Amino acid sequence: xxxxxxxxxxxxxxxxxxxxxxxxxxxxxxxxxxxxxxxxxxxxxxxxxxxxxxxxxxxxxxxxxxxxxxxxxxxxxxxxxxxxxxxxxxxxxxxxxxxxxxxxxxxxxxxxxxxxxxxxxxxxxxxxxxxxxxxxxxxxxxxxxxxxxxxxxxxxxxxxxxxxxxxxxxxxxxxxx
Length: 177
What we know:
Elements: H1 2-12, H2 17-78, E1 95-96, E2 108-109, E3 116-117, E4 123-124, E5 130-131, E6 135-142, E7 149-160, E8 163-174
Antiparallel strand pairs: 1-2, 3-4, 3-5, 6-7, 7-8
C-alpha cells in the first residue's frame, strides 16, 4: 500500500507538456498587452508634450505681436504721425517673428521654415539654431468697420510619425493709446 501511494505522488508531482504550453501562452499574451500599453503611453506622452510646446509657441506669437504694438505706442509718443498699427497690418498673408523681433518692420513673410532652438533654450529663426519640428505662422488682419482693432491669429504646426498636428490661437489687439 505504501508503494502505491508513493507512485501516485510521484506521478502527480510534475507538469504535462500541454500545461506548460498553456502557461507560456497566457504569460506571453500578458507580456504583449503590457508592452502595447507601455508603447501607447510613451507615444501619447510625446504627443502631449508637443501639444504643450505648440500651445506655448502660439501664445508667444501673440505676445510678440502685442510687444510690437506696444513699441508702436512708444514711437507715437516721439513721433505723433506714426500709427499704432504701422507694420502690423502687412502680415495679412502670414509672417514669422521670434522673441528678438523688436519692431514691426522686422516682421518677415511666412516661408514655412522651422523654428530653431538656440543655446539659451529659446525658439528663433536663426541659422545656427538646432532645428525643431515646429512651424509658426502669424496672421494679422484689421477688423472691418474699425481702425482700432486688429485680429491676430497664430498657427503652430508640426509632424510626428507621419501625422500632421496643429495648434491655433487667436486674439484681438486694441488701440488703447
